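Methods: example folding runs. The two proteins below were folded one after another, and each record is reproduced exactly as written to the output file, sequence line first and structure-token line second.
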Amino acid sequence: MASVFQKPFNITSYELNPGGDARLTTIANYFQEVAYHHAHELGFGYEQMKERRTLWMLSRMKIRMFSYPAWNDRVIVETWPSGIDKLFALRDFRVTNPEGNSLGIATTCWLIVHMNTHRPIRPGAELERFSRFEYGDPVFDSNLEKIELPVGPVSLGRHTVVFSDLDIVGHVNNVKYMDWCIDAAMTEGLKDHAIMEFEINFLHEALLNNHVVIKGVEEAPGSGRPERSQTLVATREEDGLELIRARIQWKPARHEKRNFINR
């Protein structure tokens, strides 16, 4: 039987967007939290890996949302290891409401790297060495590939890495890159849209005081493509090194009237 971990969350007022729904980055933060707890339960959490001089490094992620929860809604986030693809250990997620309806799904690709050199370690032997579990079914039909960048990206924004961007190991937190991309991609015409799908490749690390330039291309809708779709790339201004690539797909938001005071 697959090893599945689940944890409930209540959507708080400070996790909302202007439309009253949970931000996509709120959901992504929940994914990080449950992944940490489940990995610890299985024997390869942050402290356990640290003792072996290894670290988890998120390399790719794809989130697809069907519906967004609102203020005071209760959601259940579940996660499970879903396999190995070459150097990647795969972990999937599902978000449901208490009635069991699926609100969103996600898949992630992780590298195990040496703490000092950041050189990847093949995950199969490493995981089997100190954990026994069965892999669950993946939520997507195919594994994640590197995002292709269209020709002619234009400048969308610039960000200086500040202290609040950093995580427990002193690097920019994964969800912060998502924030930068969403902020840079947001236009007046997208204010009444919600993110249907967000895919990101993490390529290199940004550090404190780095200057990050974000460029992007908006793709015209077509057969099989959503109404609005953007591909973005973030580079370090100091040396031009690519940090991330991302793809955002939008759909018109359908907001209900909500009495936020009485909820």
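Second run, written to the same file directly after the first:
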Amino acid sequence: MGTRTSEVKVAGKVGNSVELMKASLGVLKLDKELLVFPVMSGIACVLVLASFVAPLALTGGWQVFEQGGAGYVGMTVMFLFYVVQYTVIFFFNSALVGAALIRLDGGDPTVSDGLAIASKRMGSILGYAVISATVGMILRMISERGGIFAKIAAGLAGMAWTLATYLAVPVLVTKDVGPIDAVKESAAIFKRTWGEQVVGNFGLSWAMFFAFLGWTGVSVALVWASSMIGTAALVPAVLASVSGYVILGLVGSALNGIYTAALYRYAMTGDTGYFDAQILGNAFRPK
């Protein structure tokens, strides 16, 4: 009986995941320009990483980091990297969510609309990045310097932070509030809509997991078949495989932004838009 119940739950999750992906893809098809935001975010993140790594590599400072001798200087550099990287990510996420909300409200957004929305909230986005970087650094230090129980505690705290801030970006996009108030509002909306004690039922994550898993199978078969032919066929096969992962990553980021916007809109207005009410209502389920 227990096995049968588990099978039903898994089947339900898969079914919800498929429907959720279909609804998100439906919005993305209407506004394919939403893919531009993950592309710009990815390029900007690579540039930020290079701007931090290149000076260390050129000056030999990288060896100091590898040997753990950077001390407070190393922690400061790491913190600054987190802040800049988070700022970039949150900025383009805000642009994506802002544009998605325009579509869900019946409008026809452009890339410029999304960037304009994010630009107006730049101060709050930077503040939110500083808060997130601080939390990330603290949890990392607890995990690295403590024992097994510290790692578990850091993991649980990280999960709680993720849930509490899940709707922080939509709050920043739609309300003229500071980063602390955005975190508080996100946690309050989450608690009011999905309850105090929840476990994430991230349907979209399940859908993307199966998409990546399926592409991995295709890639392995493609590379193996190409290797039988020769190097001339292997190189294009590898490039096609890598390109597939990049495309899936970009699409997944866009779908996640659309989904977050839909969840926030549902929590605030009860309007489901292109989504099924039951799927949004069960986005997070009671323990």
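Comment on the second run: Strands lie at 198-200, 284-286.
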